[in-house]
């Protein structure tokens, strides 16, 4: 799946080109693989824009960048054998040839392939380092997570619960909110589509918010800023409500509450923590094993042709937990 044009606003079907091309045999030091599962990430929208960011944009005509899990089918690389399952940024394509750079073997007898793209992959790492390093979370604090029913949000909220925090999730729709407070054990959930978020935060975080983990930006960030506790930390993880804007993102008009509450707001990029992924994956897998993190995944079965439509599900809130396209 190649990028055909730079999208303006929502990504449209004509922004993509599905090409059928022959994959070369692996050369010396390379392996070939068959894609099993493709990760769908809100960040993909940002990678399509030609503006300075933490990664260069996907070029027009390039295979779309994506984290995937592949099965090695042939190898001239000493580190990878046929049959190995490997994760890496191999892109939206059915077959890949790789020199192994950035590739990591995963054990799919311990967890399904999709989990290495979710709780044990980039979203899990994002939740862990965003909450614990950037948010400097302390046991027993009050934590509010937006985008709470998604890949990052479900893990962030459950890590905070495991540390004895009061956790309030913000998500779209009654089903997602019921899942957060029922299955995942959040203390409260706010349906931002139906409720006045500012008023609901007053009710559910009566002593103020110590850590606000923001996945969505916009009006919800602005509402959370009005409820900060003293020395609160606002973690800027993402701003999905702004990614399809054709004008610059709206800034938070309530930012002076950072001054009043002696609080701080800090953004981060998960890739900066790569050296410590193993530590985070170990801790998250222990919490999963102990039943303290429930893994939520939304697996769409299909082909590379289904990538454009599956990506749009993120922006319509149609996924619960980690959205993955499994190639069948
Ligand atoms: P999710 O699984 O949370 O999927 C996206 C969700 O966003 C949707 O399900 C929807 O849920 C919500 N959403 C969509 N549009 C809006 C809107 N206009 N307002 C409010 N909510 C909306 O995605 P991820 O967990 O993968 O990513 C969450 C955030 O984390 C993103 O902002 C992403 O960019 C960021 N991120 C940042 C990283 C970093 O290094 N800083 C790394 C990885 C992710 P609902 O139904 O509740 O609206």
CATH class categorisation of the largest domain = Alpha Beta
Class computed from helices, strands and strand pairing: alpha/beta
Unreliably modeled segments: none
Report the end-to-end length measured between terminal Cα atoms.
Answer: 16 Å
Q: Overall 3D geometry? A: globular
Specify the number of helices.
9
Which cofactors or ions or other ligands sit in this model? NADPH dihydro-nicotinamide-adenine-dinucleotide phosphate
- How confident overall, as mean pLDDT? 97
User: How many structural domains are formed by the residues?
Assistant: 2
* Secondary structure: number of strands: 15
Proportion of residues in β-strands: 15-25%
The CATH architecture of the largest domain is 3-Layer(aba) Sandwich
CATH fold description of the largest domain:
Rossmann fold
């Amino acid at each position: 799946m190649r990028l055909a044009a730079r999208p303006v606003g929502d990504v449209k079907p004509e922004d993509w080109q599905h090409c059928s091309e022959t994959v070369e045999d692996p050369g010396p030091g390379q392996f070939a693989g068959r894609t099993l599962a493709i990760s769908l990430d809100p960040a993909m929208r940002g990678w399509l824009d030609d503006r300075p960011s933490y990664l260069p944009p996907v070029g027009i005509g390039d295979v779309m960048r994506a984290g995937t899990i592949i099965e090695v089918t042939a190898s001239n690389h000493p580190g990878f054998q046929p049959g190995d399952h490997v994760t890496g940024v191999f892109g939206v394509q059915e077959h890949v040839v790789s020199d192994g750079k950035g590739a990591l073997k995963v054990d799919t007898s311990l967890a399904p392939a999709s989990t290495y793209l979710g709780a044990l992959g980039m979203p899990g790492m994002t939740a862990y380092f965003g909450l614990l390093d950037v948010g400097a979370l302390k046991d027993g604090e009050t934590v509010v997570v937006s985008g709470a029913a998604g890949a990052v949000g479900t893990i962030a909220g459950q890590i905070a619960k495991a540390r004895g925090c009061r956790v309030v999730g913000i998500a779209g729709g009654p089903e997602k909110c019921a899942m957060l407070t029922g299955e995942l054990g959040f203390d409260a959930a706010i349906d931002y589509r139906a409720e006045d978020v500012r008023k609901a935060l007053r009710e559910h975080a009566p002593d103020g918010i110590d850590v606000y983990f923001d996945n969505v930006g916009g009006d919800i960030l602005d509402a959370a800023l009005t409820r900060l506790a003293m020395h609160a930390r606002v973690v800027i993880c993402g701003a999905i409500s702004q990614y399809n804007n054709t004008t610059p993102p709206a800034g938070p008009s309530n930012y002076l509450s950072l001054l009043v509450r002696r609080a701080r707001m800090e953004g981060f990029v998960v890739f900066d923590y790569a050296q410590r992924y193993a530590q985070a994956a170990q801790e998250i897998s222990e919490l999963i094993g102990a039943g303290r993190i429930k893994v939520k995944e939304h697996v769409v079965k299909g082909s590379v042709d289904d990538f454009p439509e599956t990506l749009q599900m993120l922006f319509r809130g149609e996924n619960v937990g980690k959205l993955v396209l499994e190639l069948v």
